[in-house]
Design a protein that fits this description.
Cytochrome Bc1 Complex, Chain A, domain 1; 5-stranded mixed β-sheet
Length: about 425
């Protein structure tokens, strides 16, 4: 493939990554601030990013800023935030068509980046504080989002499962914090956190797309290299979740039609792609053991999937199940895990899974957003493998390694969001 990758330090705790493939018609610029998770600050950071991405000292309203970006051939800007392992990463993303595709080659990338830099370095402040009206709107948006999250039963169940699986760890916290904390957020909280992020957060800047954006990249480099910084957080994303002394089982009743069940297995195996392939072979495709046996043959689950969190060393098995089948489903899932540990893995199963996972890896070339996500994940692992290089790693994995890896996983947690009613109709 023709992707060019370059990463460099441009300031204290500040990195700039450029990923270029001429086939892409747009460029994506993302600036993220990364700090250890502090539960009380999660919602504050979310509101802060929403404030910064909707106005600046030059353009003081979301409506006008949106018009400005739309005038740049439909360029968009948006706030992003989320938890990555034990860290919160938050910031802004701009997406713009490449300059060569504008009428007459008009350079819009530099104006788009100029507005982005204004949002970051020159926010809309009046008398030294954020606009009160817009603050109330952004705060209410957060409150509404948190309150509404319970309606997405899968996301809610996953959030509750995380609290049990990662009990006592930063990653157990919900990405937007609690409703109680959100209601108490003040403008002073935003100012405090803004100053803290500018001085102490690790900052990663990513430019991914078709390229030909040197002027805009130069603007980013100049602005961030001049920042005055204090002590900056050192980020180490991979921190394995310690296994519990004994299996933890927890249930929570809810007025839903279909029970949501999560079974977490923990391992200290350092081989990321071996663990990923093991999890996919167990429950990551339509020819996996969980799909063929638990879902199709025994009809115990509406879905039964497994995936591996490489930052925490956790394989999570997720299923939707009728309440009366919960125990049967658990037994059937455990039987498939045991089968893998006992060596019940064929070469055909392994090769099918390899082809499936390699196809997924190679699909990251389909868009600049996927490619940016690929290299962002690589960054959390301290690597910069291409999809082809990872496919080569996958190809060399043997059945014996899969069996050894499976045996490194220990069942740690079972969480069930239990339906009060009868059979599912979801």
């Amino acid at each position: 493939m023709s992707v060019k990758y370059d990463k460099k330090n441009i300031g204290k705790g500040i990195t700039l990554t450029c990923i270029c493939d001429p086939k892409y018609k747009t460029n994506m610029i993302r600036v993220r601030f990364v700090t250890p998770i502090v539960p009380d600050d999660l919602g504050v950071n979310a509101v802060l990013m929403s404030m910064l991405a909707t106005s600046n000292a030059e353009i003081k309203s979301r409506t006008e800023l949106s018009k400005k970006f739309l005038g740049l051939y439909g360029t968009s800007i948006g706030a992003v935030w989320g938890n990555v392992g034990d860290y919160q990463a938050m910031g802004m993303t701009v997406s713009a068509i490449r300059d060569r595709f504008t009428i007459g080659g008009e350079v819009i990338s530099e104006e788009a980046v100029r507005q982005l830099l204004l949002c970051i370095f020159e926010p809309d402040l009046t008398d030294g504080n954020f606009n009160e009206s817009y603050f109330k709107l952004r705060k209410q948006e957060l409150i509404d989002n948190i309150a509404a999250s319970i309606n997405d039963k899968r996301s809610y169940a996953f959030m509750k499962a995380k609290e049990v699986i990662y009990e006592g760890e930063p990653t157990a916290a919900a990405e937007t914090g609690t409703l109680e904390r959100a209601e108490k957020i003040t403008r002073e909280d935003l100012l405090r956190q803004y100053d803290h992020l500018m001085k102490h957060a690790a900052i990663d800047i990513m430019v991914c797309g078709g390229g030909e954006i040197d002027g805009a990249v130069g603007m980013l480099t100049e602005a961030f290299s001049k920042m005055e910084r204090g002590d900056v957080y050192e980020i180490d994303y991979r921190k394995f979740s310690p296994a519990k002394a004994e299996l933890r089982v927890k249930e929570e009743d809810m007025d839903i039609k279909q029970s949501k069940m999560f079974m977490a297995y923990k391992s200290e195996c350092e081989d990321i792609y071996l663990c990923k392939l093991t999890a996919w072979l167990l429950g990551g495709s339509v020819f996996s053991k969980l799909f063929l046996n638990v879902r199709e043959k025994l009809s115990l689950c509406y879905n039964c999937d497994s995936y591996y969190n490489d930052l925490k060393g956790v394989m999570l098995i997720e299923s939707g199940v009728d309440t009366e089948n919960i125990e049967k489903a658990q037994e059937a899932i455990r039987a498939q895990v045991k089968a893998m540990k006992d060596g019940d893995v064929t070469e055909e199963e392994l090769e099918n899974t390899k082809r499936y996972i390699k196809s997924n890896f190679m699909s990251n070339y389909d868009s600049e957003w996927d490619m940016a996500g690929w290299y962002r994940a690589q960054d959390t692992r301290g690597t910069c493998y291409t999809p082809e290089e990872v496919c080569d790693i996958i190809d060399r994995i043997t059945v014996a390694q899969i069996v050894e890896c499976a045996n490194s996983f220990t069942e740690d947690t079972v969480f069930v969001l239990k339906a009060k009613g009868g059979a599912a109709d979801e």
